[in-house]
Amino acid sequence: xxxxxxxxxxxxxxxxxxxxxxxxxxxxxxxxxxxxxxxxxxxxxxxxxxxxxxxxxxxxxxxxxxxxxxxxxxxxxxxxxxxxxxxxxxxxxxxxxxxxxxxxxxxxxxxxxxxxxxxxxxxxxxxxxxxxxxxxxxxxxxxxxxxxxxxxxxxxxxxxxxxxxxxxxxxxxxxxxxxxxxxxxxxxxxxxxxxxxxxxxxxxxxxxxxxxx
Length: 213
Fold this sequence. Notes:
Number of domains: 1
Distance between the termini: 33 Å
């Protein structure tokens, strides 16, 4: 498998250390320890996977930044529970009827489509079109799967913890809107990948043309 690595960078290490500190601080006295565990398990799994696979594959700096956004955001949501995160400034500024902190979190999940597509293309595992579609559909599948897990956990746990984890805030279309936010995040990250890839290709072509003259 040919997976050419990007230029060496300290950024992944800086982000990892910053996240560990962030995680430890927010693990102290959360609003609900039960909800904290439920919200942090997926975060810890993703972080552990990134650590374990780093020796074998290094993503670009952009990919690491995009993936870090969700890690930091979701961990903050787990501390307060997503519906109770202090987000009044945004809510009041835009006149929202609910706290949309969780919607941004779902949008951030979609940013992982960038890394998925980058991995597929760098390792030559798929054609460009297939890689983009796989990145999009992978996020949509994860979004749907997570909503099922939320429903299952809320029904099993019940009480305030179940309601807090579900985070619907009385919106009967919450699950559908969350999945839509995931999808929008994926589309945004794929568009960003396309733009950056195009610029990189042009720069490489210009450099090659100059050296050949």
